Amino acid sequence: MPQWRTSNHSRPQFSDAKVLTLGVLQGCLGTVTLKQAYAFAVGNLSGAFPHLPNYP
Q: What range does the domain containing 35 cover?
């Protein structure tokens, strides 16, 4: 029986819940884009999001 290959992202350090939290944060801050909310999180909430991935 073949062994299945696992993805490199099968256990991400940045969870779906944190992505949703950034989306809610966008609405609470009243920012127009998710990129603006991301920039706010990077500058002010690094303790809450220690493994924040890069935003292209």
A: 14-47
How far, in Å, CA of 41 to CA of 34, rounded? 10
Whole-Å CA distances, 36 to 2, 19, 22, 32, 47: 45, 14, 10, 7, 18
Count: domains in the chain: 1
Please check whether residue 18 lies inside any domain of the structure: yes
Summarised one tens digit per residue, pLDDT across range 19-36 is 889 889 899 999 998 889
pLDDT given for residue 27 in this prediction: 92
Answer for the pair 27, 21: CB distance below 8 angstroms, yes or no: no
If one counts every other C-beta atom within 10 angstroms of the C-beta of residue 12, the result is 13
